Each structure stands twice: as C-alpha cells, then as structure tokens.
Amino acid sequence: MGQLAFSADIVLRDKIAPVKSVVSLGDIADIQATSLAERQRLALTPLWVSPPLGEQRFVTSQQVIDILVHHGFDPARLNVYGAPRVAIGWKRPAEAEQPAKEDTPSGDQNLPATNSMGFRVPRAASLFKPDEAHKRDPVFLSTVQREQLADQVREAVMMYIEDQTGKVGLIEVELSLQQRQGDLLSLQKSDVSVAGGQAPWTGRQRFDIEFDSEKGPLKLSLYAIVYDTTPVLVAKRPIARGQLITAADVAIGKPPRNARVAAGRVPVYSLEESLGKEAGRAVREGQIVTTEMCLEPQMIERGALVSVVSAGSGIVIRRQATATRDARYGDVTEVQLLDSRERLVARVVGHGELATLGSSLRPRTASGARQTPKYR
Q: Do 220 and 235 share a domain, yes or no?
C-alpha cells in the first residue's frame, strides 16, 4: 500500500510575539505547500485571539491540528511537526521564574466561540478561559499618543529612505499604526531602527521596525506609502498630441500625490527639456511630463525638396535632394540627390535642411533660428 503524500508541511516555531489582534497559522509556523494558493490559505487561517501584553499562552501541535480541522482542512494531508508547543506572547517580569502553565481545553467542544475579530473558533482551542477575562491588563493609548508614536516611526522611515536614495528633504511618508502596533511601540526603551523596503523606494513599501523594551527586543512589520517630492515638470492644462509645448502648458513643481510614472519612464526636470518640443501623446492636466512625451519638432516631410550641406576647412557645399522619409530635428536620415542616383546619410539641422555626418557646419536651433556659422 503506497504512502499517502502530504499536501503541506507545517513546521511550528517555539515562540512568537504577536503583532496582530488574531494569531494566524503563518505567525506560528513555516509552511511549505504544493501550491502558492494553498500555502497562502493556510498562512492566513485565523487561530486564536492574541494574548494581552504581559501574558504568555502555550498551544500544542494537537490544538493546531484541531482548529485546522475546524476550518475544513484534511488532517491526513497535513504534516505538522517542529516545536511540540508554541509560546505566544510575553511573560511579565515577575512571572519569569515561574514554570509555564499550559492551557487545557475546557467547556463544550461542540459549541463554537466567536473572537473579537468575528472568527468562529472551537472552545477547546481557545487561548482564553471565561474566568480569565478580568485578569487581562490591556494598554490603552489615546489618539494623541498613537499619533505621536506614528510620527516617530514616520520620521525614522523617512530618514531611512533618505539614506538609501540620497534625496534628503525630498521624501514624504504616509503611514498609520494599528492598535496592536501602537501597544507594542508604547513599550519601547530605545530608538527604533528601520529595515526593509526595496527600490525604487516609492509607493507602497513594507518595513521592519525594531526596538528594545523592558521585555526584550521587539520587531514588528508595517506598510507605508512613500512619495518622492523632487520637483518635476507637470502639465498645467491638457496638451493635445502633436501640439508644441509652451511655457503656458507646463511648470516645474512638486508632483501631485496621486501622480504616477510608469516603470521605465523618466520624468522631465527642467523647462528647457520641453519648451518647443512636440507632445508625443495627449497629456492630462496635473500629469507628470516624461521624456518620451517631448519629441523634437518634425522638420522634414517625405518627398519634400531639402538642402544637404557639407562644410569643412572653410568650404561649404550645398546640394539639393529629396527626403525619403519624415524626420525630426536631430534625426539621422537618408536623402536622394537630385543630380544623381547617389544617396546620402545626413542629420536634420533645420527646416528642410540637413548636414552630412562629420560636417563642421553648426546646426540651427530647434526653433529654426539660424546661428552664425564660424569658419577657421
């Protein structure tokens, strides 16, 4: 008879410090499953209410299996091993020398209970007994106190991002603390240190916050939204595709909070990079202008008569040719000479004018105004 294959390996940890109101399986165990969806489903399965600060509870591997069965998992497909029991929470200093007391199931196991988050769990697996409710000692933080803690974390995250990017004074961070996170931060006895996040360091980021407390080192994870406030070119009004960009259309300023730049796109940081350029596509009001939106104006049309100039050593040769394709200022294109079948490759330097590659002739500006040629 063949051996039944397990669909998930669940390795229990020996102890954890919960940072959420409800302990899930992913908090107390490392999980390996046959599929990512199954692993995520197991990891997010709620188990018990987190013990209050200063208290510690123990659960056995059998209790873990029992509650997973309650949530509809097949115990024959689960391989639970690791620590024989898991310590959840922190001991009070006065209780550090006392032996840990393991909770035992009590009450009617057939009657489900509902925890503070609305999850239904069997009473046999509950971490709390009804007569222990009066012994809890929760931390009550006012709105002002929680906001002060959030400001402290926000400042630490902002300085961390500035160190990673070098953009000092150009970073803003938006975050809020959950009740459990605020309760843990209220125990801090040292400055917080920050780790985590990833390039490009903007948008929604996950950070690890570490600090010392009277109960030992603590670590919690939180999410924040990071904004880069480096001044960029922003459209002051809608710009149609093909329209020449003027100073009335754009301005340098702080990017709007809701503005986004697609991956691989480069924002424009100066007016000079856009004025007189042609909008490569329609631009909305308030949108950040990127380099691919600013095209050099078209100066050559396919089939048009153009002038090709070669200059060097004080000699200038000008020849007539026909353009073989449309071209913009600065483009290198091919033309057909009128007096022969010869084709030349030249660079667009003005309206209807090209210069052969290597020519010493100074080009016109993009607006078409001539610059005074200089000869040796």
A: no
